[in-house]
Each structure stands twice: as C-alpha cells, then as structure tokens.
Amino acid sequence: MGVFTAPENLSGHEQVVFCQDKHSGLRAIIAVYSTALGPALGGTRFYPYATEEEALHDALDLSRGMAYKNAVAGLDLGGGKAVIWGDPGTDKSEELLRAYGRFVESLGGRYITACDVGTYVEDMDVVAKETNFVTGRSEDHGGAGDSSVLTAFGVYQGMRAAAQHKWGDASLAGRTVGVAGIGKVGKHLIGHLLEEGARVVATDVSERAHDWLKANHASVDFLDTTEALITSDIDVYAPCALGGALNDETVPVLNASIVCGAANNQLAHPGVEKDLASRGILYAPDYVVNAGGVIQVADEIDGFSFDRAKRRASKIFDVTGEILRLADAEGVPPAVAADRLAERRMANVGRLRTILLP
Fold first, then answer.
1. How far apart are alpha carbons 190 and 221 in whole angstroms?
2. d(C-alpha 103, C-alpha 130), whole Å
3. Which CATH superfamily hosts domain 148-291+317-344?
4. Which residue among 1, 6, 237, 312 has its CA within the 20 to 30 Å range from the CA of 202?
5. Domain coordinates of the chain in residue numbers?
6. Binding-site sequence positions
7. In CATH, what is the architecture of 8-63+77-141?
8. pLDDT per residue as tens, the chain (358 positions)
9. Is 81 a catalytic residue?
C-alpha cells in the first residue's frame, strides 16, 4: 500500500512523515490528516507491527479518526497520529523517545502528540525535552496526567445517551454490560458502571488484568474469551481494546442491543455499520464517545483544569444523543451521521481560514 494509492477510506491526508534514527532504533510514522480546524492533535502508538505496511495503515486510519473525533468534540484542532514501530517493552529508551521528539519538533507545530497504546505520561515528559508540541504530560510537569480517566468518563456518558435513545431511560442500573479489555480505560469504565448499579462481565487476554479484577471488583464475572462475552446475555457491548472488534465474524453472533466502547476504529471495514443496523443493534460511534481523553489533553494546551475538562467531557452525552437523533432523521446508521457532522464542521469552520487577516 502506498501513501498516495491508499484505499478511499484512508486517503486525503495532508502529510505523512517517515522518521528514522538508526542509532536509537527509532522507526516512526507521523500522519497528519487535516489541519482545517487547527494543529493536528493525536497520540503516539508504540506497537510491534508485523510489517511496515501494517504500521502505515494504522497511522493513516488512526489520524483520520482523530480529525473526526476532534471535530465532533468541538475542539479547534485537526487530526493526526503517530506510530512507533517496535516493542515498547524492549525497544523504548530515552534516546529513542528524544529522537522522536526532535522529529515532532521539526514539523513546527503542525502536529501535537500525546499518549496512546504503548506510551504513557512519563514518555511524554521525555519527548517534551525535545519539543514543545506535546501534551498528556505528568502532573509534576503541569500536565493533565492519565487521559484514560476522562476517556472512560466520556464512554460512560455516551453509553447513558445510547441507553436513553434505545430504551427511553439513561440509567444503566440493572443492565448487563460486557467490557472487552480491562486496560487503562476499561478499569475506570467498570468503576462507573458498578457505581451506577449495572452488572458487569469482562474479558481480557492478560492474566494480570484478570488478577486486578479479582482483587478490586470480585462481583464482576470474568469470561475467558471475547467470543464468550459477546454471545452471553448482555445489554451493552463495550469494546475497550484494539480496533476491528466489529467485523464479519462478531456482528452476526453479537448478543447486545447497544455497542458503546472506548476502542478506536471498532468497525473493521465499511459496511459493518449497516450490518449492525440491520440486526437492530444501536452503535454509538467510537470516536464520539471516546473523545474524553483528547478533550482532557487538549485542555492542557491552555493550562490544565480537570474540572473544566470534565465539564467538557460530560457534553459527550449531548453530542451522542444529537448524532443518534440525526441518524434517525436522515435514515442513516449513526456512524454515517457522525461522519457527516464532523465533515460539516471541518468544511464550515475550516473555510474561515480563507479569510485573510492583517
């Protein structure tokens, strides 16, 4: 796959930068999808991709998703994403992260980075030694800290909005929610759900995640596989791990009325959203409901206030409801309605940049 010959759903990027520092072992790709609304904000994923093509595909796909996420969240920021090709457990070093920071700095502010899978606030503190264009830093350095806190809170608000739309009641008390992925976000989400009185079942490939669940929430049932979870008697399915959770194998056997989770790019390919709709499953678009994290790190750019960021993240309830109503009104799946809303804002607000200022 070439950058200029990517499939239609991955095309339209403004800039893709390949970064290499042989001495530190850095191999990274920075993808800027759009700066129509402002600098492209998106995290850095550190992951052991099987091939360079797979890494490029992820960078292109994730950066597009960030542009749409930031637009729908009402942020004056464009969308970008970076991937570092390697194993974060063995390849990550101060030298590599600082080399990466130099490449981010070289873009002059077109791209602002933050945490993602395989990177943490401590890593962003290291990257920040070489660039000013980084957010999601530790609290010791004036940052927002762990962005998974408001990511989970936003997913919880989106889930409540989906419940309101589906059942006429935003309460999740008494509902059964299946959480796939007990990572940084999944842990916080489970806490919100249990506090409201929902029944939770969960799964994760990590034995450590299972141990954490037993130690902290013994009332949560643990299932060995995602297949067991999605075919069990659940009301809501919350994918909170990697993308592609909704595909040609999972959707036909999914036993839930609502899908609302934190994972990015949950739809494995175009058309899955129609399959969900045909089965009567309400899909809360992933980049809408998981925007709490980017709202949190974006707030840091102007001087972080957790209370202010949380108030902004709480509006995910309203935005999700608006998109679900728009989908009904226009006779399209919610994923299509969300895309339309994002594209309208990028076009209408981005157009204002053509008005020259003195």
1. 12
2. 9
3. NAD(P)-binding Rossmann-like Domain (3.40.50.720)
4. 312
5. 8-63+77-141, 148-291+317-344
6. 181-186
7. 3-Layer(aba) Sandwich (3.40)
8. 565 666 555 568 999 999 999 999 999 999 999 999 999 999 999 999 999 999 999 999 899 999 999 999 999 999 999 999 999 999 999 999 999 999 999 999 999 999 988 999 999 999 999 999 999 999 999 888 888 899 999 999 999 999 999 999 999 999 999 999 999 899 999 999 999 999 999 999 989 999 999 999 999 999 999 999 999 999 999 999 978 999 999 999 999 999 999 998 899 999 999 999 999 999 999 999 999 999 999 999 989 999 999 999 999 999 999 999 999 999 999 999 999 999 999 999 988 887 888 8
9. yes
Longest dimension (CA), the chain: 62
**Active-site residue among 81, 92, 214, 315?**
81
Decide if 29 contacts 56 (C-beta within 8 A). Answer: yes
| Same fold: 8-63+77-141 with 148-291+317-344 | yes
